[in-house]
Design a protein that fits this description.
Radius of gyration: 13 Å
Oligomer: single chain
Number of strands: 11
Number of helices: 0
Distance between the termini: 37 Å
Order of helices and strands: EEEEEEEEEEE
Shape: globular
Length: about 120
Amino acid sequence: VLLVESGGGLVQSGGSLSLSCTASGRTLNNFCVGWFRQPPGRDREFVGGINWNGGYTRYTNSVKGRFTISRDTAKNTMYLQMNGLKPEETAVYYCVADKGPRDLYWGQGVQVTVSS
């Protein structure tokens, strides 16, 4: 599975960005998918995830109410809508597709920079 993110960039504090992650090589219909981020000099951290049929989502507390994860199975694509962005959320954002420890795939990452 090849995951390719898009939509990153520079935004002012309080602004919005929408990230996309499109998969090729295999359908994601039976995968849980989600997003992680890695701020400069820090470890990669969980942002949010959505289960295989889109019926359940989970977010880290700091983004609840501001970020929304969704998926379009027909397009084999997942999305991360980010509103109210903060400078401390500057990071490389990664999408992930998970069907178990031997069936785990990461995107290459996309830079999101939030200016103050």
